[in-house]
Design brief:
By secondary structure, the protein is mostly helical. It is built from 15 helices and four strands.
């Protein structure tokens, strides 16, 4: 019988889609005229940036930043703006260790421009992308070189934290975040989210280590049928124990992602002059064509991918 440890990318398809979907509920009526009728697109295309990593050079590094690659004084010294950053650090080095915060901000500026042009197709595409990038910036393991526990003998923890547990328990989360609010300093808001996520890396790793010492191997893992295959997964008992040990951390980070995404969509619309988003015609959005590029550099570690 075929078995393997299941691996899911980033927040996971389920979580990314759910986060984008719920973020639309916070928008004002003037924006909902576009976002509500196209909610399925915003939801399903939330995962396009992950698919793009295998087809577009330069995509992979947009999803993370290894803060622990830099000096301890990084928070006070790393330039917030891209032009300044490449003056201080070689661009190849920046990209090698992730450009997530800068990429998210650039996508925000592109969305603002799309609003100014009232380009509805671009608005929807960029909104879905921005939701993905901002959600990634709220994942602690997107801020460290030890992104999958590969440096501490905890391989698989990435998908465990952001995919397995949300899939098991997100239906019990209280994810309503209220109405979208204007962000005065978007670039700073992104960095603050990244710093806050990074402070939680230790707890993400330590709590899993402690529980692993308490659970036998056959208690930590179990097997489930998926798409006709028997797959090895973290057991429900271990998953629930881990989530309890983190004291609601995953739910909080999902809510922060949702709130941040709604606020950024709203801020881009405000900065663009609050354009009328009503459309007399049905919006036709062409499917994004992605062709896998063999040998494209994407971070991997065994069966779990960042």
């Amino acid at each position: 019988m075929l078995t393997f440890l299941i691996s899911i990318i980033f927040w996971g398809f389920y979580a990314h889609s759910l986060i984008n979907q719920i973020a639309t509920y916070s928008l004002p009526p003037e924006m909902m005229v576009l976002y509500k009728v196209n909610q399925d697109f915003i939801k399903t295309k939330a995962v396009n940036p992950d698919r793009r990593r295998y087809a577009v050079k330069g995509e992979a590094e947009k999803h993370f930043i290894d803060l622990d690659h830099y000096p301890d004084s990084l928070k006070f010294s790393l330039p917030l703006y891209w032009d300044q950053a490449i003056e201080e650090y070689h661009e190849d080095s920046l990209r090698a260790h992730g450009i997530g915060p800068w990429a998210a901000y650039k996508t925000f500026l592109s969305l603002t421009k799309a609003f100014e042009l009232r380009n509805h197709e671009a608005i929807l595409r960029l909104s879905a992308d921005l939701g993905h990038y901002l959600a990634d910036m709220n994942v602690p393991l997107h801020t460290t070189r030890n992104y999958n526990g590969q440096l501490t003998n905890q391989e698989g923890i990435h998908g465990f934290w952001e995919s397995r547990i949300p899939e098991l328990n997100a239906h019990n989360y209280a994810l309503w975040v209220g109405k979208a609010e204007y962000i005065e300093k978007p670039q700073l808001a992104i960095w603050e989210a990244v710093w806050q996520a990074h402070t939680q890396v230790d707890s993400v790793l330590i709590m899993e280590q402690r529980l692993t010492e308490q659970f036998a191997e056959d208690e930590k893992y179990s097997y489930e049928e998926r798409n006709g295959l028997t797959v090895r997964v973290y057991s429900k008992a271990f998953s629930n124990a881990y989530e309890n040990a983190l004291d609601g951390q995953i739910e909080r980070q999902m809510k922060k992602s949702i709130k941040m995404i709604a606020d950024f969509w709203y801020t881009a619309w405000i900065n663009a002059g609050q354009p009328d988003l009503r459309s007399p015609d049905e919006i036709e959005i062409e499917e994004e064509e992605l062709v896998v590029v063999p040998g494209l550099k994407v971070r991997k570690h065994d069966n779990s991918e960042r």
